[in-house]
């Protein structure tokens, strides 16, 4: 596995759960507490809390069973206050272990849902941090491609101004110039239309996801979520959403404008990360802070109820089992391994089958829509071609008529030429005859003059 790419684990690592890090358990009076257990485990990774023995600093250990060079290369390249930090990398016989910054404040949406209400100012302060993190990624031509509430965490929620951390770069890509990249991945609810339609992807896909996240943050409703995956993808492809008065009655027009500029189907017309940071709804944060410092009275703020956001977070987590605590971590690990091994063979094929069927159905729907469009275009083109053929026939008939007229004119010219030749011959004959007669007259005159008497004067 990637020989030379990661630091290999020694025998003591495997035997004692790592000599350097206490992987997977946190000792507390003999009780093993599991950090981010089944509820946060992904299809390819398991995340556990760990503690570096030499320093006592706690980190998150991400155990991964798949190819991760791209994710590691990206994590090594990025260093930003609003993005999770990679501390170290190890490898054993079965897993690659990423030692990551411990982000223990939970998800942003869970934190906000605990509040009774939320102001737009509070929402934009958190959103500004998200935009700052994404701006840093985009400045390095890195697209996250999986921005969603579950991947927007708080470093520590028990501080006055919690810091946002963007996590999970499993499907992130560096966008290279003149290198077309296509893929169908991500979470259906948050993916951009170009992913659904299998079109070239770029940094713009992240901006669409930010638009969806902002919509949910302000309303507690998901703009494109349907009853099925296919319905969700169809809604995204058609950009089928609105600002229902029931959910947006207390939302400012600036906030709606911010969302509208992000939920644009054409990636080239979608607002960029630079444009988002310059949008009045985001920039107004600084002006509000200045006014509040200058004025002793706090302005009346428009408050958004978080009831629907609570419902959304509960619904989004409803399929996730709660975290578990075991006294014996070794027994827990063994049970989990046995359960995983037993379920893997039974469930993987069925999951892939269902996912494939849904993807095929979604692609078929898109294909049928495009086929209908192509049919309409074909009919339009056929009509244009028929008109062109008719004009061509008319031109050809006119060309033939012109050719006939030219042939007729040439024939007439030849006839005139022959007549002219005959007349010219006659003219020459007459000219010779006239010349001959003139010569005879001249000779006659000379003869007469010679014969007349000298004294006779002709009158």
UniProtKB/TrEMBL annotation:
Keyword tags: ATP-binding, Coiled coil, Kinase, Nucleotide-binding, Serine/threonine-protein kinase, Transferase
One record GO biological process: intracellular signal transduction
Signal peptide location: none
Any GO MF annotation of the entry: ATP binding
Listed GO CC annotations: cytoplasm; nucleus
Keyword ATP-binding carried by entry: yes
Residue ranges the record marks as coiled coil: 378-433
Domain of life of the source: Eukaryota
PROSITE patterns in alphabetical order: PROTEIN_KINASE_DOM, PROTEIN_KINASE_ST
Keyword Aminoacyl-tRNA synthetase listed: no
Domain Protein kinase, first and last residues per copy: 33-282
Protein name: Death associated protein kinase 3
Species whose genome carries this gene: Erpetoichthys calabaricus
Source organism phylogeny: Eukaryota, Metazoa, Chordata, Craniata, Vertebrata
């Amino acid at each position: 596995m990637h020989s030379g790419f990661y630091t290999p684990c020694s025998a003591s690592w495997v035997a004692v759960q790592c000599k350097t890090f206490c992987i997977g358990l946190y000792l507390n009076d003999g009780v093993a507490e599991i950090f981010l257990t089944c509820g946060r485990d992904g299809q390819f990774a398991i995340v556990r809390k760990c503690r570096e023995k030499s320093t006592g600093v706690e980190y998150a250990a991400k155990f991964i069973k798949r190819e991760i060079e791209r994710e590691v290369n990206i994590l090594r390249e990025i260093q930003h206050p609003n993005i999770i930090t990679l501390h170290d990398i190890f490898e054993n016989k079965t897993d690659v272990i990423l030692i990551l910054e411990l982000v223990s404040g939970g998800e942003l949406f869970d934190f906000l849902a605990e509040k009774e209400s939320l102001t737009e100012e509070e929402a934009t302060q958190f959103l500004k941090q998200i935009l700052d993190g994404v701006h840093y990624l985009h400045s390095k031509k890195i697209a996250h491609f999986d921005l969603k509430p579950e991947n927007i965490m708080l470093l520590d929620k028990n501080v006055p101004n919690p810091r946002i951390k963007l996590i999970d770069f499993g499907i992130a890509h560096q966008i290279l110039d003149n290198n077309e990249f296509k893929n169908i991945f991500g979470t259906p609810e948050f993916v951009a239309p170009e992913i659904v339609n299998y079109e070239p992807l770029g940094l713009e896909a992240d901006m669409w996801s930010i638009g969806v996240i902002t919509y949910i943050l302000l309303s507690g409703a998901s703009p494109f979520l349907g009853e099925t995956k296919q319905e969700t993808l169809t809604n995204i492809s058609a950009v089928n959403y609105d600002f229902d008065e029931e959910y947006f009655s207390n939302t400012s027009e600036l906030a709606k404008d911010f969302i509208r500029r992000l939920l644009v189907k054409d990636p080239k017309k979608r607002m960029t990360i630079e444009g988002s940071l310059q949008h009045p709804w985001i920039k107004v944060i600084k002006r509000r802070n200045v006014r509040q410092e200058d004025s002793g009275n706090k302005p009346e703020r428009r408050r958004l109820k978080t009831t629907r956001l609570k419902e959304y977070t509960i619904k989004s987590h409803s399929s996730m089992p709660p975290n578990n605590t075991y006294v014996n971590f070794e027994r827990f690990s063994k049970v989990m391994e046995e359960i995983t091994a037993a379920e893997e063979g039974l469930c993987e094929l069925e999951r892939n089958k269902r996912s494939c069927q849904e993807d095929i159905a979604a692609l078929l729907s898109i294909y049928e829509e495009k086929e209908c469009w192509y049919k309409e275009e074909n009919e339009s083109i056929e009509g244009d071609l028929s008109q062109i053929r008719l004009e061509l026939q008319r031109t050809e008939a006119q060309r033939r008529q012109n050719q006939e007229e030219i042939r007729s004119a040439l024939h007439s010219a030849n006839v005139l030429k022959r007549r002219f030749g005959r007349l010219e011959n006659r003219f020459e004959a007459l000219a010779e005859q006239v010349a001959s007669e003139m010569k005879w007259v001249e000779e006659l005159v000379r003869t007469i003059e010679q014969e007349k008497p000298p004294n006779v004067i002709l009158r």
